[in-house]
Write a structure and sequence with these properties.
heterotetramer; A: 378 residues; alpha+beta; Rossmann fold; six-stranded antiparallel beta sheet; 37% helix; 26% strand; elongated; B: alpha/beta; 2 domains; seven-stranded mixed beta sheet
Chain lengths: 378, 302, 378, 302
């Protein structure tokens, strides 16, 4: 679960990490009011849950309250990568000496958390990692030891700081790690972490993604899993999530339903191989119920972009008869408004096929054959 | 033969009284897996499909000499179950449970490393050595004993491919799922090493997907070590956009990292045949693994 | 640092561990008032920081408010092992089905914490361990794993519980471990932990000793290190503690001052070997200042029991001249009211000896010779 | 020769800029210890008695190939310093600091075990191999090179005994303090094993005290293994009452456990001579270790 910049910063500030002075505003008038409590110049920052906000014009600067109002009005009317900007963060602009990067994420190969620092901040860290690997410092965190104060000092030291400034930076990194573990962060970043003109450090931007699987330990966030305002999900994605379906909207023309993440991905690939373009990824998971199948089909049938729907089920825990029941219910309730190609094999296959065949629905054996046919129907 | 599990594997089912644990215990027993006991805290004393249930794994190891565990315990308690199994001396732990927090998985893997435990999963369909033992939730009938080792990052896609191989007369030595999470116990290189030593295995199928770099690591290993057995790969997710999780927590392209293109290129550079579609895999195996056909005849004792 | 029973119980109750209903009282009247809010029968328990209170008559039972008043009056007038009883804990008496033991302490050999359980509670656990070792269950706690819920279940299981009762007991043990680590417990016990007539579990008595070295992490307790009411220390021991001296009062006739715990113990042993009886253990530590020597000498010179004082210094970090200065200051300020035997060797030995010799104080070379002489002076 | 430290030991002083660290760095340099660097976070760049100071141990290991550390860091930060040294690859860590919380010490020892690090202390006077290296705060002039190995739970009492031995012509191979805390890195059995292998050592002195059972363990080891070198023991605290800490955090009789009587009896049952008073030790060594006298002649290169 992604948190907004202002939420992440509030968490950092609470744990003692310096952040810019500022506050949230939902309207230009409110933005002006917030700014009136601050010292100019000001930063006006769109609060959206996608990266690349800066390049999209979602961060503006202002020297006067009037400019704040104008900039806020502009940003609040934007859509960034399809997401409406619902609020802006008004802050005092920081006097930058240097922009740094510090983040903690997961290292899959080493099976541990990794702390990553760079003296090149404010840009995409992956680009720095590939272009200037010598500017990246990593500490792989032994889970039995954690990220200790000496790890923080090692990093601060390698970033070129010494004396009290090194200790100050190390102190911030240590607190940051505490925030990361306390929030089950999958990714947490200060980018940029700014060295100010007077030698202090301020987290000028912050990003925090909580491990969805750990949300049961963070109930205050779990509640909003299904709230459109608080996630970057589309209406359909939230609908799917509520139904326990893994759904990702794409921009093709063949709607796809399958069971099992790998199989669904392979189905998308097969459709593309035969010249189609997947409209989505939709995994009903293992042991899907009739109701889940109904919900999955409803989502795709109402998707204007999907001209054909391809259902690819290989039953293991999933029962073919249960899937067939779902398909039949949808046929009865709303009718098929577009062509549907069905491949159905595995557990209770015969019963499922019989039910569908009796209802006049043709069922295929081979996934690849079915994919070809789905593309042919376009 | 095969790897990790065989007919001598003595299994404890952790979470045996839950719906999933109960259901799959029956299927595993039907298959012939030696399930010696189950564990559900607070339910010690009952029996499930004739299998005695205990409160702790410690007891099961003492009384039934269990040496492997399969875990169906709900996510918030699954890590604890894995630690319990490892501390009790279990050397193979198969974690079926999905949605385990990453922080918990990291701790499981650190503990496993300390004790030399093989962890399969989390979020895996499990492992099957056809004709010998199954610790998993895969439909058993699509597998048949033979010479192809399969390691996969996906469940259903593995069934798709295994069923096709079986239909085409290509039996399997051992098939297992690494697990769909970002942090799992085994990677493809581990699988390759074990299949290399297994005399039953004469070819290896690696079923990869987007996210992470276990495919790239495997490719490098195959090239560097001049891997002596035939390897065929499939990579799912060529159409996946960056930044979106494709069902599995681990199936995500981060920026330019973890794309299917990168993985396919790595395999091809290492001389590994990459199938465009699942059905190609059997074709490649038939063409490039003449020995595979020989052993199939033996693969019928299932 | 030892906590009082009522303090330990408050901590346990806060963490969700069942404890008897009750409250503290400092007078018989207050005790009666407390009891009036409770259901009879009652327990009246002396709050003192020494073990063996039960045998000393510090725990009484009462069936009426009148009896509570009487019992409290009796207990509040007691001294237990030399300590005045300042308050009593008035509780509802628990209906006992079985008395159990659970504690966590340090295993020195294995270098870890150890959880110890027994189905024989309410008695000295060390006696159970030596007499009925089969009644003792231990879990050695791997510091990288901690005491996990399955450890708690293993113990509860071995104690003979099953089903929901096993889970209930295991839940209590898990919480108890959390209390132990959060308080840096050197020893924490529920003894007895009672299985009640209705199958529940209640910590009927609790003991908690915090690692003194960890008190900087528990500042609410650190403050009272030097408070007589809140520790089991004598006035002299507190005085010594304030001066940074390690002092233990004993019941002999030879006062002893030395530097280094092992050397001071060996000095006590030597005095006894030659027929004396040590009046105390007093270690001025490494690098003692003049002021510490003065304080140490003052404590022993005012101790009526100590007829002779034997100072045994082997200077390493400790400087003999500094020690000599302290001795001379005491001589000047208050005079020596009893014989003083001094052995002084090591760092700056010559200077120290010169200073003392010039003041007419004889200094010896050998510790054993000095010990002999000290005994001879009795 | 001697054990654990010798003339090739390359030492980093952690907490070198503190009063204790600074003072003892000078004394260790005077003795001839190879101190290659010091560490105090935030003080990197300065020099103490000519020794360069760094911010991290990692740098010191990289630039100066330090292989041992002596820690003078205040108690709240000492555990962190020990972990830093171990993670940086240091294999001998001497923790002078006292008052380290037990919980921290337990973690230090678990980490040390994982990495195969020898920890001396906490709350130890350190270790000295006369004529070669000293990582500690003991007065150097009372020691002399020779054949007696000393392991002790006490500081000043060791000086008392070592000085007496030296005066009587009995030099030492290596002397070290286990540390006065309940949780320390080495015990007497560890010491006996190392002294057994050391050809310079021909007799061992164990200086014990009340609390714990390392003396009993040592006695059992000596009896079971028929320990081949002469061992003399001294146990302080015969007059200590139960339940009271005698200066050291670890010197406490708990109920009937850890008494001097128990330790003395264990040693005597194992055939180990126990000295009634410190001066007896030299007597026992002279009588029972004829070889000891031979080697003394060589012990003058200090």
């Amino acid at each position: 679960m992604k948190l907004y910049e202002h939420e992440a910063k509030t968490i950092l500030a609470k744990s003692g990490i310096p952040t810019p002075t500022g506050s949230l505003a939902a309207s230009p008038t409110q933005a002006k009011k917030v700014a009136s409590q601050l010292h100019p110049p000001y930063a006006v920052k769109a609060q959206v849950l996608v990266a690349g906000r800066g390049k999209a014009g979602g961060i503006l600067f202002a020297n006067s309250l009037k400019e704040v109002e104008k900039a806020s009005s502009k940003v609040l009317n934007m859509k960034i990568k399809g997401l409406r900007v619902g609020s802006v963060l008004i802050e005092e602009k920081i006097r930058v000496k240097k922009e740094l990067y510090f983040g903690i994420t997961i290292d899959r190969s080493r099976r541990c958390y990794v702390a990553i620092a760079s003296t090149t901040g404010g840009v995409d860290i992956e680009e720095v990692a590939s272009d200037k690997p010598e500017k990246i410092f990593k500490v792989f965190i032994d889970p039995t030891l954690g990220f200790r104060s000496y790890h923080a000092r090692q990093i601060a030291n390698k970033m070129g700081y010494s004396g009290k400034q090194m200790l100050r930076l190390a102190g911030i990194l240590e607190k940051f790690y505490k925030v990361a573990t306390e929030h089950d962060a999958e990714l947490i970043e200060m980018n940029p972490l700014i060295e100010t003109a007077d030698g202090g450090f301020v987290a000028a931007d912050a990003r925090l993604i909580i491990d969805d699987n750990a949300l049961y330990r963070h109930l205050q966030y779990k509640e909003r899993l299904f709230s459109k305002d608080k996630t970057e999900l589309t209406t359909e994605e939230i609908r799917a999530k509520k139904a326990g379906l893994a759904y990702v909207q794409l921009d093709g023309n063949v709607g796809i339903i399958g069971n099992g993440a790998g199989l669904v991905m392979a189905t998308l690939d097969a459709v593309q191989l035969y010249g189609g373009k997947p409209a989505n990824f939709l995994d009903v998971g293992g042991g899907a119920s009739k109701q889940q199948v109904v919900e999955a089909l409803n989502i795709l049938l109402t998707d204007q972009q999907a001209h054909v729907v391809f259902i690819n089920i290989l039953g293991g825990i999933t029962r073919c008869d249960e899937v067939a029941k779902g398909i039949l219910e949808v046929q009865k309730e709303m009718g098929f408004v577009k062509p549907i190609i069905i491949r159905l094999v595995g557990t209770n296959e015969e019963e499922g096929r019989r039910m569908l065949t009796e209802a006049g629905i043709h069922v295929l054996d081979s996934m690849e054959e079915a994919a070809k046919k789905a593309v042919d129907m376009l | 033969m095969g790897i990790i599990v065989d007919r001598n594997t003595r299994v404890v089912v952790q979470g045996i009284t839950g719906a999933q644990g109960n259901f799959h215990t029956r299927l595993m027993l039907d298959f012939g897996t030696q399930i010696v006991a189950g564990v559900t805290p607070g339910k010690g004393g009952v029996k499930i499909h004739g299998v005695p249930v205990y409160d702790t794994v410690e007891e099961v190891v003492l009384k039934h000499r269990a040496n492997a565990s399969i875990i169906f315990v709900p996510a918030p308690f699954a890590a604890d179950a894995a630690h319990e199994a490892m501390e009790a001396g279990i050397k193979v732990v198969v974690v079926i449970t999905e949605h385990i927090p990453i922080r918990d998985s990291i701790q499981i893997m650190a503990h496993a490393k300390q004790r030399g435990v093989t962890v399969i999963g989390p979020n895996t369909p499990g492992i099957i050595t056809p004709g010998e033992s199954k610790l998993g939730i895969m439909p058993a009938h699509i597998f048949k004993q033979g010479g192809v080792g399969i390691a996969s990052r996906s469940g259903t896609l593995t069934y798709e491919i295994a069923a096709e191989l079986t239909k085409r007369g290509l039996g399997q030595s051992t098939c297992f799922g690494l697990g769909g999470d970002p942090i799992v116990g085994l990677n493809f290189v581990d699988a390759l090493k074990m299949f290399e030593k297994d005399i039953q295995t004469n070819a290896v199928v690696l079923i990869g997907e987007i996210g992470g770099d276990v495919e790239e690591q495997a490719a490098e290993y195959i090239a560097t070590m001049k891997y002596p057995k035939n390897v065929v790969a499939f990579v799912a997710g060529r159409t996946a956009p960056p930044g979106k999780r494709m069902g599995h927590a681990g199936a995500i392209v981060m920026g330019k990292a973890g794309t299917a293109e990168s993985k396919i290129a790595a395999f091809r550079n290492a001389g590994v045949k990459v199938a465009e579609k699942p059905s190609d895999i059997a074709n490649f195996l038939h063409v490039y693994t003449p020995k595979a056909r020989k052993l199939e005849g033996e693969g019928t004792r299932t």
